[in-house]
């Protein structure tokens, strides 16, 4: 509330816009419910909640607010507020409450209608993001007695109405969906038009908002990528400014027992072993099972006319998982609880209905087998084997030990204990398809006494906002190439107290990689936002950077139309070269010579310090890295101008970095460098007359799916390399930061941002890595005889820069606007 405005000062206009950045399935509704209650107490008179695009999500939100704000069931059946109708907060005793009214209700047709009365006196409404509904609401607001025409001399628009002294709070749930304008607001010269026509939903939201002179817009989302890319200069006379969250973006805290993208897909950081990357060190969680597309069930690309003919074994296994999960939960005493399974493999409703038939038939087949075969049938054996493979005590204990906050006690389960509960679990499960063509619904509240066990088959309707209670098993094939859509489809994120160990995710290996990248990008954004809050900056003045990916889009192309002005800003950054050509002897010879020329130059002109490893938080190291201090910027600039990076690089582009260093060097920043030449890997060879180098680092990479002539090694840095140039006092501060911010409640990038900010503006760090290309099993294998002897040994670099606010830090660059896919290590700014 402290980020909003005081609504009690009469005749004072205000316009405050912000965004709350939460986690998928993490309780964002509970958060804005609390904000609504406090806003009403503080004096806001009208609160409009924009709740998704579907009736079921709007109804779900209305039901929450009925219970937690209104205190009574607001529906066609119950239109009054008498005591018999009280629910939730309305049943509390001994408190004096405001009477809060709602012109919307929880029924299927309970959205705003023109006949509903607007009193502007402590009213809360929940409306869909639907053009017709919003148009009706705008008309009703502007036709209300409180709406007054502006005088022509005020704005020169005699037909525009405004409402004074009625503070309004618009809460935009899933603010990146439908609210973001996707119209073309640029002219043929790529200049922002002075007047343009926004898309309908964005248009009505802005016009409703602009009608009030005391207004606050607060968006909520777990995927704010599109919101950050809104052009903050976009505005029209009729609609006012676009919905860019110019005043604040609030990182909502992560609950201690929340399980999200980081927990599923991001391993703990590697701080110990220089030879192993994070990916190599991570043991795969038993939570995840890899699956493949099946041409008889749901091919990667299929049409609306496709007819699935058989369930793949992987889906039958997933159904076994769900049955066993229900049985184990009952064994633990979790009987009157909801359990859901999600099958999300196609967007076509007709195909979903056909899959429902196949799944229903399979459930009958499994039940018949278990009921009549005396545990000698195919599915009876299948269930037992699946339990022994998937739900053995080793797997359950591994998850319980790695996620201690998700369990109140340690649980054990055996097949002998679980087996008697299997048939009851099967009989309790229903199969539903959830789409616009289906009459099926998920009425969890109707099963509050017994619990609902359901297999839900769907697509878009299940992709955002809608909560699947007790989701235990997800079978997920449908890929999206957009960060926001991909993350929102992750319905398996959330709270799984005392049953996380029985949850399973069936997903393709490629999708796991995509989720890993988006999780990294999201954590990086959260770290930037925490840092922005620390330095008390606002989004309208702080350059937020979004990591891009070689195969993914940050958001839909239409939502990225405002991302036209690109700048590289290397302030407080780790920049590293990770993409290399497979077969280009000239490329590697050029970079070998650039590196050797730099080392020869600084070895003569600068101080070599043999005690490099004093900066590293490990003991008994055998590595003998080379280390130079007080290196002048000219040598670094010359190296970067000679060194080549792949043409697709827009962040780790040596020429842009050289320009950046040169620009800051001119104002007295980045004038003093530390250079470290990594020496590891065994078997020395001559590099210069005075320096011998070992074979270099090993990094397991991936094939580049955009350009098969390139390979990516993901990362070059490891351990505490980023602290090579730190003094003892700086390193102590860095350790304090790591201790304070390394727990899971803070974004993973927070430590990196805060520790890099410890550098003086004058100081930079360059680390040079010879790359070992011998391992034949390494996917990042490069071809050719790349060696010290041939002067073609591959060299990568990492650069760490201090924080700066100098305007010289922005380096402009031009990209082809039609090229929306970029390399994994790059940023779109």
Strand order of the largest sheet: 3-2-6-7-1-10
Please state the structural category. alpha/beta
Question: Beta-strand percentage?
Answer: 15-25%
What Rg do the Cα atoms give? 29 Å
How many DSSP E strands? 33
Look at the structure and give the mean pLDDT.
84
How far is the N terminus from the C terminus?
Answer: 30 Å
- Identify low-pLDDT runs: 269-283, 612-620, 813-829
Principal-axes geometry comes out as globular
Q: How would you sum up the major sheet?
A: 6 strands, parallel
Query: Roughly what percent helix?
Result: 25-40%
Total of DSSP H or I helical runs spanning 4+ residues: 21
Walkthrough of the structure:
It is a single chain. With 829 residues, the protein is α/β, with parallel strands linked by helices. Helix 3 (131-142) packs parallel to helix 5 (200-211), helix 9 crosses helix 14 and helix 18 (633-642) packs antiparallel against helix 19. The longest helix has 26 residues, at 509-534. The chain is globular and about 90 Å long. The two termini are 30 Å apart.
Structure summarized in a few sentences:
The protein has 829 residues and is of the alpha/beta class.
Structure keywords:
globular, alpha/beta, disordered C terminus, six-stranded parallel beta sheet, 829 residues, 21 helices
Write the layout of secondary structure elements.
Layout: E1 14-21, H1 28-42, E2 46-51, H2 55-70, E3 123-127, H3 131-142, E4 148-149, H4 152-155, E5 161-162, E6 168-173, H5 200-211, E7 214-221, H6 225-228, E8 235-236, E9 240-241, E10 248-251, E11 258-259, H7 261-265, H8 278-281, E12 288-290, H9 313-331, E13 339-344, H10 349-372, H11 378-390, H12 393-402, H13 415-418, H14 422-428, E14 429-434, E15 453-458, E16 471-476, H15 483-488, E17 494-495, E18 504-507, H16 509-534, E19 546-547, E20 567-569, E21 574-576, E22 579-581, H17 585-605, E23 607-608, E24 626-632, H18 633-642, H19 654-665, E25 672-677, E26 685-686, E27 692-693, E28 702-703, E29 710-712, H20 728-741, H21 750-756, E30 763-770, E31 795-800, E32 810-812, E33 827-828
Parallel strand pairs: 1-7, 1-10, 2-3, 2-6, 6-7, 12-18, 13-15, 13-16, 14-15, 16-18, 25-30
Antiparallel strand pairs: 4-5, 8-9, 11-17, 19-33, 20-32, 21-31, 22-29, 23-24, 24-25, 26-27, 28-29, 30-31
């Amino acid at each position: 509330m402290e980020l909003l405005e005081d609504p009690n000062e009469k005749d004072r206009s205000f316009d405050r816009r912000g965004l709350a950045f939460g986690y998928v399935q993490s309780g964002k509704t509970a958060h804005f419910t609390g904000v609504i209650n406090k806003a009403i107490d503080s004096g806001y008179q009208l609160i409009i909640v924009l709740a998704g695009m579907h009736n079921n999500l709007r109804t779900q939100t209305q039901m929450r607010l009925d219970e937690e704000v209104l205190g009574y069931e607001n529906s066609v059946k119950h239109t009054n507020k008498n005591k018999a109708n009280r629910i939730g907060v309305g049943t509390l005793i001994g408190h004096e409450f405001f009477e809060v009214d709602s012109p919307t209700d929880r029924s299927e047709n309970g959205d705003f209608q023109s006949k509903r009365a607007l009193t502007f006196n402590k009213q809360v409404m929940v409306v869909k993001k639907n053009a017709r509904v919003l148009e009706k609401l705008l008309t009703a607001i502007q036709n209300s007695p409180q709406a007054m025409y502006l005088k022509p001399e005020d704005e020169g628009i005699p037909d525009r109405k405004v409402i004074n002294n009625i503070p309004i709070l618009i809460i935009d749930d899933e603010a990146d969906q439908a609210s973001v304008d996707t119209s073309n607001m640029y002219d043929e010269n790529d200049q922002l038009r002075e007047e343009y026509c926004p898309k309908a939903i964005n248009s009505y939201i802005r016009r409703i908002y602009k009608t009030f002179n005391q207004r606050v817009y607060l968006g909520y989302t777990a995927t704010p990528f599109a919101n950050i890319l809104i052009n903050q200069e976009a505005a029209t006379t009729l609609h006012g400014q676009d919905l860019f969250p110019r005043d604040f973006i609030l990182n909502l805290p992560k609950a201690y027992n929340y399980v999200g993208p980081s927990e599923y897909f991001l391993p703990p950081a590697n701080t110990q072993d220089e030879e192993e990357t994070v990916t190599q060190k991570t043991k795969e969680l038993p939570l995840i099972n890899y699956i493949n597309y099946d041409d008889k069930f749901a091919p990667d690309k299929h049409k609306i006319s496709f007819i699935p003919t058989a369930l793949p074994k992987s889906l039958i296994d997933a159904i076994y998982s769900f049955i066993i999960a229900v049985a184990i939960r009952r064994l633990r005493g979790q009987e009157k609880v909801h359990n859901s399974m999600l099958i999300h493999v196609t967007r076509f409703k007709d195909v979903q209905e056909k899959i429902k038939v196949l799944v229903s038939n399979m459930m009958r087949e499994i039940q018949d087998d278990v009921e009549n075969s005396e545990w000698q049938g195919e599915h009876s054996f299948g269930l037992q084997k699946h339990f022994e493979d998937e739900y053995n005590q080793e797997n359950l204990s591994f998850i319980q030990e790695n996620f201690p906050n998700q369990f109140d006690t340690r649980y054990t389960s055996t097949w002998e204990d679980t087996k008697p509960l299997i048939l009851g679990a099967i009989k309790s499960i229903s199969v539903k398809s959830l789409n616009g063509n289906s009459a099926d619904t998920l009425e969890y509240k109707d099963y509050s006494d017994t619990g609902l066990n359901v297999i839900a088959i769907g697509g878009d309707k299940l992709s955002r906002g809608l909560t699947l209670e007790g989701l235990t098993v997800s079978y997920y094939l449908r890929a999206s190439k957009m960060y926001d859509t991909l993350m929102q489809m992750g319905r398996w994120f959330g709270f799984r107290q005392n049953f996380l160990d029985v949850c399973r995710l069936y997903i393709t290996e490629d999708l796991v990689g995509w989720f890993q990248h988006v999780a990294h990008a999201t954590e990086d954004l959260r770290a930037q936002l925490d840092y922005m809050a620390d330095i008390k900056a606002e989004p309208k003045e702080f350059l937020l950077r979004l990591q891009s990916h070689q195969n993914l889009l940050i958001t839909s192309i239409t939502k990225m139309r405002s991302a036209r002005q690109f700048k590289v800003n290397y302030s407080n950054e780790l920049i590293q070269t990770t993409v290399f050509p497979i077969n280009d002897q000239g490329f590697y010879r050029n970079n070998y010579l650039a590196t050797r020329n730099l080392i020869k130059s600084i070895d003569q002109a600068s101080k070599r310090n043999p005690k490099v490893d004093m900066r590293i938080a490990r003991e008994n190291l055998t590595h003998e890295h080379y280390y130079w201090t007080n290196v002048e910027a000219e040598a670094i600039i010359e190296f970067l101008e000679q060194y080549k990076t792949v043409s697709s690089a827009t962040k780790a582009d040596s020429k842009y970095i050289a320009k950046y260093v040169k620009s800051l060097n001119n104002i007295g920043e980045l004038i003093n460098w530390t250079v470290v030449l990594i020496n590891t890997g065994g078997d020395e060879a001559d590099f210069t007359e005075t320096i011998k180098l070992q074979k270099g680092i090993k990094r397991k990479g991936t094939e580049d799916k955009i350009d098969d002539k390139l390979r990516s090694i993901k990362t070059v840095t490891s351990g505490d390399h980023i602290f090579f140039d730190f003094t003892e006092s700086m390193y102590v501060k860095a350790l304090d930061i790591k201790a304070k911010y390394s727990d899971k409640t803070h974004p993973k990038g927070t430590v990196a941002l805060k520790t890099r900010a410890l550098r003086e503006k004058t100081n930079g760090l360059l680390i040079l890595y010879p790359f070992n290309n011998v391992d034949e099993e390494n996917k990042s294998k490069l071809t050719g005889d790349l060696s010290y002897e041939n002067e073609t040994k591959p060299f990568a670099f990492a650069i760490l820069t201090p924080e700066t606010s100098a305007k010289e830090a922005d380096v402009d660059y031009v990209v082809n606007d039609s090229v929306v896919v970029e390399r994994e290590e790059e940023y779109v700014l």
